Amino acid sequence: MTARHIIRRQIREARRRLNHAEQQAAALAITERVASTPHLAQATKVALYLANDGELNPHRLIDWYWSQGAEIYLPVLHHFSPGHLMFLRYDPDARLIANRFGIPEPRLDIRLLLPKQELEVIYTPLVAFDATGNRIGMGGGFYDRTLAGWHQGQGPRPVGLAHDCQQLPHIPTDHWDVPLPELLTPARHWRW
Predict the structure, then answer these.
(1) N or C: which end of the chain has fewer CB within 10 A?
(2) 155 is in an annotated binding site
(3) Measuring CA to CA, which residue among 88, 87, 46 is closest to residue 66?
(4) 120 in a domain, yes or no?
(5) Contact indicator for 134, 173 with CB cutoff of 8 Å
(6) Does the keyword Secreted belong to this entry (predicted)?
(7) Over 80: is that where the pLDDT of 172 sits?
(8) Residue 83, annotated ligand binder?
């Protein structure tokens, strides 16, 4: 078993141990951080995700952005380009279906599709991160492929969302990994 697999197993267990009250407090803290950060608070086209497997739940953040008049988009497994994500508009009454990983996503409707270049921020879930912006995801590479090129002005700004218990001193990286320029936890706002 590789170091990355061990990290994934240990950190996923740690975040699953967070109780409902801790998850709710984390969701509130993240929303307050975003609301007090002008470049994030002013975004009008934002990609978020629906929490799975103990991930930091952005449900309050989604509600807050809606209250500000922002459009929310959810990642959907790309139907024609395997290993990639596309983003569909998400509204409170959206019909969701489970993808092949059991994660709810909007039903494919081309009228709801937004090219990723039109998004301002992509909030990314992750398994673990370190103090230099490196991240480990679930292992499919979906976000790394989606975020490739953002630092050359070829896409929206990625911002990681995580619990504080997901931080490690060092993350082993591969050449395809895309480090984050910014990450929010309940206790801290990281920028690199």
Answers:
(1) N
(2) no
(3) 46
(4) yes
(5) yes
(6) no
(7) yes
(8) no
